[in-house]
Amino acid sequence: MNLNYTDQQNAFREEVRSWLAEHVPAEPLKTFDTEEGFQQHREWEATLNKGRWGMVTWPEELGGRACDLIEWLIFEEEYYRARAPLRVNQNGIFLLGPTLMEYGTEEQKARILPKMANGEEVWAQGWSEPNAGSDMAAIRSTARKDGDKYIINGQKTWSTRAVWADWLFGMFRTDPDSERHRGLTFILVPLNTPGITVRPIPQLDGLPGFAEIFFDNVEVDVANRLGDEGAGWSVAMATAGFERGLMLRSPARFQETARRLVELYKANQASADRDPAVRDAVMRAWMDAESYCLTTYETACRLTQGGKIGAESSTNKIFWSELDQAMHATAMSILGARAELLPHAPDAGDVGTWLDGWLFAQSGPIYAGTNEIQRNIIAERMLGMPR
Amino acid sequence: MNLNYTDQQNAFREEVRSWLAEHVPAEPLKTFDTEEGFQQHREWEATLNKGRWGMVTWPEELGGRACDLIEWLIFEEEYYRARAPLRVNQNGIFLLGPTLMEYGTEEQKARILPKMANGEEVWAQGWSEPNAGSDMAAIRSTARKDGDKYIINGQKTWSTRAVWADWLFGMFRTDPDSERHRGLTFILVPLNTPGITVRPIPQLDGLPGFAEIFFDNVEVDVANRLGDEGAGWSVAMATAGFERGLMLRSPARFQETARRLVELYKANQASADRDPAVRDAVMRAWMDAESYCLTTYETACRLTQGGKIGAESSTNKIFWSELDQAMHATAMSILGARAELLPHAPDAGDVGTWLDGWLFAQSGPIYAGTNEIQRNIIAERMLGMPR
Amino acid sequence: MDFTFSEDQLLFRDSVRDFLVNEVTPERIRGIWESDSGRDDGLWQQLAEMGLTGITVPEAHGGLGMDELDFVLLAQECGYVALPEPLVNTALVAVPVISQLGGQAAAEWLPKIAAGETRVAVGCSDNGLAEDAAQAGLLLWAEPQALYLLTPDQFSARFNESVDPSRRLYAIDIAAGVLPAASGEQAAALYQAVLDRGALGAAAQALGLAQRMIDISVQYTSERQQFGKVIGSFQAVKHHMANVAVRLEYAKAPVTRAAYALARGEAAQVAVSHAKLVACEAANLAAKNSIQVHGAMGYTWEVDLHIFMKKAWAMAGTFGDTGFHKQRVAEHIFADGVALGAGTTF
Amino acid sequence: MDFTFSEDQLLFRDSVRDFLVNEVTPERIRGIWESDSGRDDGLWQQLAEMGLTGITVPEAHGGLGMDELDFVLLAQECGYVALPEPLVNTALVAVPVISQLGGQAAAEWLPKIAAGETRVAVGCSDNGLAEDAAQAGLLLWAEPQALYLLTPDQFSARFNESVDPSRRLYAIDIAAGVLPAASGEQAAALYQAVLDRGALGAAAQALGLAQRMIDISVQYTSERQQFGKVIGSFQAVKHHMANVAVRLEYAKAPVTRAAYALARGEAAQVAVSHAKLVACEAANLAAKNSIQVHGAMGYTWEVDLHIFMKKAWAMAGTFGDTGFHKQRVAEHIFADGVALGAGTTF
After folding, report:
1. CATH number for the domain harbouring residue B187
2. Angle between the C269-294 and C322-333 helix axes, to the nearest 10 degrees?
3. Which residue, B311, B303, B248, B242, is CA-closest to B103?
């Protein structure tokens, strides 16, 4: 065990830090749940890609730096420290990207990954359907094979980024007689294909973070299938594993929130201390963010040495999503009467973006498999309790 | 609405207070989980009964005072304020007593209630069986009718007070072919009957608060049946209703614990405040105890006016048992390194009886139907959620 | 000792509930959100016609002459429908405070309020901003040392957007030369009254909001299927709702008791703070658990949940935030010589 | 950056675990409880034969010369079996402190400890009482300004009963004229070392205790039937256990990190306090949820649960209670100019 960074790791950190200092926009971008903000974030992806900082864990030939997990953690730390923009293409980068590298053909990788990397093609995800939710096995949208085409019909919902995205990846039922998780196929769909209708769904902040997507005899080349026909479930499970796993929520994000929470508390200490629960919650926030960082490093080190991620990774999402909710609830409590004000309200004072964060934090325990489902998984697969 | 006591109620309070001031033993009695303490408590019951304070809600002809619920609450407040002894015969007073009055024959009432009132006969309960627990419908002990006798075989467990008690009430399967909650009969059993073996079960504090009871061809007069043969389930449900409901946990107990917690906090404030969660927990304790008192008075007033206790009474047990646990956990936290010391340890200092209370508080969320079962009941019967 | 509402009070509550549930539907609230004024004059007139705007106005001034205790059940119903109109602040804060001021102010304004001619708004410097200031014919603005009754020409208002689109919040600037209606000790007492009464109104609304979120969630989870089962049949979903029900059940009596103390002119500060803390906590738990059992659906404007959730969040901070009320409780229970424990509640 | 234990460390851990689980059974612990001394000399000899009593004793003094990081995994295993013998205090506190004292003390005592000839006990004035003082051949007693190494003739011990019958606690009176082994600044530093090391030991044991309570509860609920089903199949029961698993999973790395800091001589106070707080919280949650899923059975001496639960409760208060460690965390994170946030952990 050695908890010091190597010289090489320190040098890497310096390189990231100075590039970001030079390139991170001085003005925060608009949210990518608006059209203008979406465009700004797309441009930022191109900037990142030009500096080869878009996908640091990707192989060099794909524009990445072949970073290992520790370097990735360092990159993330610097990225959050620098308050660099959120990644509009996270569906592509963190979910589809790794899946493509495992299941895609060479042709698919060559065609898709570079445009994903430079922000030219932003990806939406098409998992959920009405009345399916977290239950992917209940998917009913169909893809009927007709020569070298699939004819897609049905509906997807809760598709993040889909309002302005270019492509969608999702699962469709190719065997009409199949049930549950059999007979599903993983297909990539250009969102400008005739027959597709995208309807925005306003989320808690009123902006269209999600969309419903309707498919009416949409024709897609068979070449856009990822993995074998009928093997969609196992491809998707790998993707969902990436989603729940290490790659989606780097500790840096929560450590920065904890740091800002400490600052908010100190700036409002006299009024905050009237409620003794606040100080305790701030301390817990820091400790839990620190625990999350330490545990993630431990896992990353184990993985880089060839270890496997086990069932205990299901604890990950519960831990960070509850931490995120608790931190933002504490901030709301500190802000008191001001907590309800939108950031741009003229008398909002020091409320910052805590309200946005609070709204967003509500989704943490829900998406990518509700925390209730995660708890079932922990009990059954990690602890071995009876089904 | 009028939240002032009547002159009559104030006078009643004064009467209780002065009698208790005169009669409550100066030295705390030993715990009734020891033989000596059991005897002391039995004598205290006799003293209470002599003053007609043993069963204040019972009719006057049975040695009570026909108090309504408000007077009962006042009595309890004074009883806890005076730190009078715990009631060793609470199984009889609060559970069997009301059930007898509803289901017993005149002969049964005349034979049983006076001796219950004066402490001559202390009652144990015989609900649970091995592998049944809270699931009374899984009872397997049998009572076979033979002339004017029942021949009882089987085993009961978690029988509170049974180690030194005189009688037991419980349910037995009189129809051997019956299943679940059909074919059960409520029978009263003298514990000195041949064929009965009582085996103490040490509880968390090491003392025998519970016992297992083995029945080997135990002969009991049919006259000891309460209610009809095969109707045990509905009789028991009424008893369990008393247990969960208003009568078992008067607010006074929790308000006194909250008061002692405030005192403990103030006496140790400097060290307690190093953990800001403590002060918050103390405040919550006081507020929740106050909420419990207010809500209980509201319910009591509604009931005395002929209202019915509804499904919302299932919230009662969760509320007080979690409050009790939280208050004692807070006390343990304030006591720090001293918290683990038994009260009689020579250097225990001001630890008082918090540890005993903490151990006892562990049972609150478990007994009389676990809090998980209560939550199911609330969801299904009070909120109408699907089974 | 009688801790029950009268039959009359309960019947009136039922009729107001019926009215509100029928008239103030989520659809109508969405319409109000999209309107320029953010208020619905027709609705205000309907409330006036039922006597609600003047419910606490003395009969001599054209009102029903009822008190805080009569109104507290109705305030819960206002919460249940997330009523955007400032009825609770009117009945619980503005009218009693103007009545206390008495004289010319009472004679002039109370009849207009009772008749629904004037919408009155309440602001309090502890809140920072005043709700409905630009939509009202009269603004009652309370500061620790000055109480103002302001007509629209006497102040300017700057709109501040709340997470709850039902809440129209304004920073106000009082025109030069406008004199307070009360100052000094009288104003200090009225400022406390505004805070306590506003807090009670927020607490009562929080109870209604919590109940509505339970009802919405129970209905949603009783219909919605997942993994081949109605999700309301999952124990985790049931327990989320049961936990809210427990906290809500024990928050009701404290709110009633606080209303009683205010109505009887008894010392009410600790009772109000206790009530607001437990009621807002119940409502916030209701919000948290309701969105969780709604799944992704709860995160959208598609379902009605957020109408109630956002108001619940706002109630926690208005008319004294958690810290303010906890401090008042602490000052009471940690004071030397205070009587706590069994038998000290009433 | 390598946050993993070596193969050797893990293999050693596995072999110690096998030994402890086989030898220190609940039955043996119940036997120890009923013995007069409350300790088991045979067991201490077995530990010595495995090299464990001397694991952190320098090789020159007959030990294995390993460090805190080598031992921290074993301390968790000691918690897993609720080992009554003072192995953790010996290896993590007594031996390193005596080594730091060096000279005659080290030369005299370390070989005896390594050989299992002398059982050493550790006391700290912050705890008030000293565990095992009457069962030990040597008592290390730490006060803020004085550190004592006491032989049985140099102090008297008064027994104080703990809720955990495995813990034999004593108030001690040092005989007149006994001189401290260190005083002044040296003693102050060693006092801090005793607290930090003792706290790390408590934290590591708490992890093991939490894991054991999970294991016991999973097994119990997988066998026990109610309402016609195995109770472990109820979602509420599963979620109780999952909640413990989550907190435990994230308490492990902080404990490792604290051990690393101590082993490397880095500033360890904040790391130790963080580790103790989260580990003891996980263990206390494990106790609470385990007794709940055991139902009435958990409330008795019949099942093994209480052996581990009671020790978990005791761990929370020993070597710095929650307030002590929270205060140290607060002093760190609320200090002016401290570097917090992303990239500040290592």
Report:
1. 2.40.110.10
2. 140
3. B242
* Co-location of B221 and B273 in the same domain: no
Subunits with 3+ Cβ pairs within 8 Å of B are A, C, D
Q: How far is CA B42 from the centre of its chain?
A: 16
* pLDDT > 60? residue A248: no
In a domain, B297, yes or no: yes
Give pLDDT < 70 ranges for chain C. Answer: none
Per residue in B247-271, pLDDT tens?
557 899 999 999 999 999 999 999 9
Least confident among A173-177, B20-24, B135-139: B135-139
pLDDT band at A242 (very low <50, low <70, confident <90, very high): low
- My answer on whether A228 and A283 are in the same domain is no
Q: Are D138 and D154 a contacting pair, CB within 8 Å?
A: no
Residue with tokens 């939509």: C135
pLDDT at B137 over 90: no
> How many Å apart are CA A314 and CA A300, to the nearest integer?
15
- The residue among B370 and D72 whose pLDDT is bigger is D72
CA distances from D226 to B132, B163, D53 (A): 6, 26, 46
**What is the CATH number that goes with domain C195-334?**
1.20.140.10
Same domain (yes/no): B70, B144:
no
Specify if B231 maps to a domain.
yes
Q: Could you list the residue range(s) of the whole structural domain that residue A300 is in?
A: 240-382
- Would you say B350 and B267 are in contact if contact means Cβ atoms under 8 Å apart? yes
The residue from A185, A202, A236 where one domain ends is: A236
Chain A contact present for D260, CB below 8 A? yes
Residue among A77, A106, A243, A380 flagged as catalytic = A243
| Average of per-residue pLDDT values in chain B | 91
For chain B, the domain total comes to: 3
Q: Is C164 on the interface with A (CB under 8 A)?
A: yes
Quick check: B245 pLDDT over 70? no
Q: In Å, how far is D210's CA from the nearest CA of chain C?
A: 23
Q: Please say if B243 is a catalytic residue.
A: yes
Q: Do B367 and D314 touch (CB under 8 A)?
A: no
Average confidence score pLDDT of chain A: 91
Whether residue B228 is found in the same domain as residue B299: no
- Shared domain check, A196 and A161: yes
Structure tokens at A378: 């922990």
From C219's Cα to the closest Cα of chain B, the distance in A is: 8
Put simply, the answer to whether C296 touches A158 (Cβ < 8 Å) is yes
Q: How far is C2 from chain B (nearest CA, A)?
A: 5
Domain regions of chain C by residue span: 195-334
